[in-house]
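Lecture 7 notes. Example A: sequence first, then its structure tokens.
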Amino acid sequence: MTTTQVRGACPHDCPDTCALLITVTDGVATEVKGDPAHPTTAGVLCTKVARYTERTYHAERLLYPMRRVGPKGAGQFERISWDQAIDIIASRLSAIAARDAQAILPYSYAGTMGLVQGDSMSARFFNQLGASALDRTICATAGATGYKYTIGASMGTDIEQFQDAKLIIIWGGNPIASNLHFWTRVQEAKRHGARLIAIDPYRSLTAEKCHQHIALLPGTDAALALGMMHVLIAENLLDDDYIARHTLGFDALKERVLAWTPAHTAAVCGLDANTVIGLARDYGQAARRGEPVAIRVNYGVQRVAGGGMAVRNIACLPALVGAWRHAAGGVQLSTSGAFPANRVALQRPDLQTRPVRTINMTTIGDDLLRPASADFGPTIDAVIVYNANPLAIAPDSSKVMQGFLREDLFTVVLEHFQTDSADYADILLPATTQLEHVDAHLAYGHLYMMANNAAIAPLGEAKPNTEIFRLLAARMGFTDPCFSESDEQLAAKAFDNTHPRAIAFDWESLKRSGWQKLQVADAPFADGGFFTPSGKCELYSASMLADGLDPVPAYIAPYESVASNPQLAKRFPLAMISPPARNFLNSTFVNIKSLRGVDGEPYLDMHPHDARARGIGHGDMARIFNDRGSFVARARVTEKARQGLVVGLSIWWKKLASDGKNANEVTSQRLTDMGRAPTFYDTLVEVEKMPTPRA
């Protein structure tokens, strides 16, 4: 027996991007564990990735190319060869491209976060083809845009500093489920006397373990931040020196927040005024004592109409109290902006010979059904899906399904498993998992460049995404030498080593070590140096004004709320959010029986008052509905959900639910105030008890 240990990196859409050690015996991966030497992973993996061999060697892995033989959506396929598959795809795409290549749409997101397998060779292929561009907004762009207007880049407090904070506000996230290694640091801070405050409409696993849980109404986070600013200014809990030297627009902000008294803020947020005052005082007084105060804001905040503004408002707070002076102070939304990823070299936008239209991945339901027009361009005639599962994750799911049911739509899906989306493919191609290919990774929760070495040979006839697009490029006659570059050559271009933060990047060295930290100051904005046009934290943003937005922090009410649409709220009086279930990662891992078995079926958490009013008991089957659609889940009557809120932990594959549906049946395709992102948590519904089946 020959046993080796291979260095890898977790590819999934999680801020932790763990360093992996894969044990391989006679060509078989037998164990995946965390690298104990990696400072953030520290030898610990989440329950999901600790079982990665179970996923790679799953009995239902797709191992061969297949062609649809039954109706769309039925999931009926026959095995074909790679030559046949590539011939069919190239022939169909060539015919469409001869009319207008913009009728071809790539659809991908973060099934892998790798810079190589995510979008390198695939981007080159679609750029050369002249296909429509995809606006990849479905997760983070609203918050990232609001943060960028304020701070200038997706950079902030390093995870390795949080354990030294004395007050930590966890705003709109559940790190126990989705940011485990940050939570480890928080627990260390707690042992050293830090106060923990969770701000979340739902009493999550994380909120239960904090000193205080503030359960505001969904979509009112921006208002709470404005109320905090009012109290900080009124009680002079400010760092006047930091404001004078390192911010822009304080006077405009001061005037704006005058109206956001604790009473007004409390009324908007569904809180008590003393809660607003207490939160601001906890934050401002700790900073005044010279203690590091830190905010971890997460993406739950930004999935509403005013989501970008909400993140912007929160990002203003550290500058007001001088929290950035401390390495353990400030705010973290994402660290991704610290990485000088060399996307131009990887994706080759220069291959595109003319401007093309852009399709937003959030509105795929409407856009697949949209006829050709001068404004829209050609009908979408082909969709190539990779690193994504749109039938499960895109909003307004019934329209998404209608679009993929079109007989004239040619659909290709690259996948590991026969997902909801795979069932609608005309050609289904087997892709490799992280253990079977090479990749390079950045992170959005720490500051380490990461290498992933292939630990085992591809199973069956599975191929890396890169190789699939190389084959397609060759068959379609693309002759640029870039289409012949290997994965190793691509990975060697992943980061720009002329940039001072990544000056030590060398792919061969990174492969051997597995990870390497960027050169970033411990307290990046202690002396200002923000990445905004002014070099300051922009409380007033001229860039926002130029983009048609309010340049000063403001509050934008949810689309679906009493404030914005009282008639709709009368018909559908319950707000619904659908945060990640602990054992799933978006729609990944749902088919792993040992993980799915923890819950067993979709659940809906609802407050006892709301359940009683509808005659729903704990364990009853409930139908959740609005004008867009409905889905069924088993009710859990619990005070974890505040009154007026229901919570559907997600995202279930539709085919694994009793009614073949999931929470995205009721979510909307409307976009956020900035960043063109989805409004998953801006959803009103009604809930009714399902009749008990007759024996």
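Example B, a different protein, same format:
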Amino acid sequence: MLAVTEDPKAATEAWLAAFEQALAKPEDRAFAALFQSDSHWRDILAFRWDYHTLSGRDSIRDALKTYAPQTGAARFSIPASRAAPRIVTRAGTRTIEAIFQFQTTIGRGSGVVRLTPDPQDHNTLMAWTLLTTLDELKGFEEKLGSARPAGQSYSRDFRGPNWLDLRRTAAAYDDRDPAVLVVGGGQSGLAIAARLKQLNVDTLIVDRERRIGDMWRNRYHALTLHNQVHVNHLPYMLFPPNWPRYVPKDKLAGWFEAYVESMELNYWTATEFEGGRYDEHERRWVVTLRRADGTRRTMRPRHVVMATGVSGIPSLPDIPSLKTFTGTTLHSSQYTDGEDWKDKRAIVIGTGNSGHDIAQDLHSSGARVTLVQRSPTLVINIEPSAQLVYTLYDEGPSLEDCDLIATGTPLQVGRKSHAHMTDHARQLDQALLDGLTAKGFKLDYGDNNTGWQFKYLTRGGGYYFNVGCSDLIVEGKIDLAQFADIETFTAGGAILKDGKAIDADLIVLATGYKGQEHLVRKLFGDGVAARIGPIWGFGEKQELRNMYTRTAQPGLWFIAGGLAQCRINSKYLALQIKACEEGML
């Protein structure tokens, strides 16, 4: 067991020195002395241009022997500016957790190592988990802080174009095409565009909405973010410290507008990306954009980044009898406000976040609501239970340090950690869960009890953060029915198999969205979709498939996820694109 008196800093320095020596002269015995038999190494761009997680001492040893000579990783040390090494508990294991820095032949990196005692010799500490990441490319450092642009090119030339003139020219693209076209102007599009801007890569965002932030502004009236403000910052610009804990959708939409202006991002609103093809000879895309006035613009960017979210095309279930319903039928993406349905009757099909929130919004507006469950759903109270996964961000390290520590949790350890948190959440929420079960609500807790976040990472949904709708179900104020119990839909609603009628003026299909593969096929054709394969969910590398890194289709990249996920991973995606632009990749 890890001794409380162990000096975390000295232990980490000793391990880093031995690791650097082993990298300089890769030998089996040296690596065997450094890693636990059940250890994990996650590398992001530092040793190979990829996201990759390896598990097991032998696999890690073989990979390090292969990649160490060409990487030139050296100068490992503990940075004074980062959180100091400390003893923590991760996934039920007591460990020394330390942030370190290093250099390679092409860049500078950082990482996290977690040390635990050797089972055979408790006086020797070995790596349980190791993260190595590339933070910047030498010669292409971001122009931040003291390295910021001087602004003299326009501020000292009174007869030349000023800042606004230059911004308008840059955003118009009258005489050039961007190097990178980002499709989608939500958090993922803004994050990657901001990162590329700092690396001096010419980037244009296009979004079909008429105003920046409309992808949030136009969603249903009551929506707020379901995780807390201190986790959700975009790169470079933190939310003001007086913002509410849970950010309302319209406030976030306004922030997106301010962010685009402040970060000087090129952004075309009301612009539909109609599709494209890849020119293998020119190594460029030929894409078509349709502007608000109906005109079309052909562009030839070297890279297209799909930043349209985890999924983009509404999923509409095939329910033949639904065609007989004579009331209003909407997909959840079309729903805006419950005020028009006061004193009306509504059926909401689907029990994820959107289904519950819409049901509660309708109920609050005076509608009589029946929520229809299609499959077992994870339910968790928004506080404190749903926030347990963000406990790290309350521990004290800086946002940058928390992001790195979170990134340093490999898949298998993450699953174990989330299973612990799911058990804790179930204990906290037991009364609510018992009440739902008594009403006939079918619960689940994710694959292998891994909870809501892994549901999101594997399928993009299937859970509900309870902000009151579950209580309304328990109290009988919102009715519950199982989809399997519906015999047929009728002109006036639905008939259950027991003969009971559910009357409705409105049916909302909160049935989610199709995977991104469907959007890729629509925009780029069957060949590109087949070449890339599945998007999202975990693959054989223990990483999200085709996300944040190179795909089998040259010049096509993907970024998606919540604000924190995009903030973290946009850095690594931008570095890869910059490396391509400079002929390094």
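Note on Example B: Residues 563-581 form the longest helix (19 residues). The longest strand covers residues 121-137.
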